């Protein structure tokens, strides 16, 4: 297995707080982005976020792999948890769904991590617990050393779309109140 790192990316604002962090990712490693977000509530939202992730990848000259959008598969994965609170069991299943797809892409080739750890609304501890089921998962906590602030500043400088919900229809419901 090579020294490369496959980085699951949820959106450009989060990615901006992760990809250019030599204190977190050894700059000698080749980082590739993996946009896997079937949890997004519509193909339009998927494409809107992907457009900014493409700009981020181009800015940092990173390869980008796009996992096909399959919201029906994601809905099956969280079936029965639709009314779970934000940060609860549904989110845990969602993290597992996205990390499993990332692990599949990285299998036998490289290590992987996720930009989800940069968000103050996501539990790095939970993400690390889920990721520990794969031996090539790297528990990088991008929240450290102002990762979220770096990401939001970079997003503003680049005029990236910043969403106000994680992406699924159930989190949108909680922000629309």
Give the SSE map.
Layout: E1 5-9, H1 12-15, E2 31-35, H2 43-60, E3 63-66, H3 71-77, H4 89-106, E4 111-114, H5 124-131, H6 147-158, H7 169-175
Parallel strand pairs: 1-2, 1-4, 2-3
Give an overview in words.
It is a single chain. Helix 1 (12-15) links the parallel strand 1 and strand 2 (31-35). The protein has 177 residues and is α/β, with parallel strands linked by helices. The termini are far apart. The chain contains 7 helices and 4 strands; from the N terminus they run βαβαβααβααα. The protein is globular. The chain has a 4-stranded parallel sheet, with helices on both faces. The chain has one domain (5-175): Rossmann fold (3-Layer(aba) Sandwich), CATH 3.40.50. Helices cover 42% and strands 10% of the residues.
Observed structural traits:
alpha/beta, four-stranded parallel β-sheet, 7 helices, Rossmann fold, 4 strands, 177 residues
Short structural summary:
The chain is an alpha/beta fold and 177 residues long. The chain contains 7 helices and 4 strands; from the N terminus they run βαβαβααβααα. The protein has one domain (5-175): Rossmann fold, CATH 3.40.50.
């Amino acid at each position: 297995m090579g020294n490369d790192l496959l980085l699951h990316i949820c959106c450009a604002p989060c990615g901006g707080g992760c990809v250019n962090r030599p204190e977190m990712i050894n700059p000698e490693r080749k980082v590739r982005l993996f946009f896997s977000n079937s949890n997004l509530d519509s193909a339009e939202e998927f494409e809107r976020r992907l457009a900014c992730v493409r700009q981020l990848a181009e800015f940092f000259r990173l390869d980008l792999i796009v996992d096909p959008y399959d919201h029906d598969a994601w809905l099956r994965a969280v079936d029965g948890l639709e009314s779970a609170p934000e940060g609860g069991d549904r989110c845990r299943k969602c993290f597992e769904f996205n990390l499993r797809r990332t692990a599949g892409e990285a299998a036998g080739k490289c290590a992987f991590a996720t930009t989800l750890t940069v968000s103050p609304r996501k539990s790095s501890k939970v993400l690390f617990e889920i990721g520990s089921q794969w031996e090539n998962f790297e528990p990088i906590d991008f929240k450290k050393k102002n990762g979220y602030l770096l990401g939001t500043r970079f997003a503003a400088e680049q005029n990236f779309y910043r969403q106000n919900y994680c992406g699924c229809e159930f989190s949108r419901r909680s922000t629309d109140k």
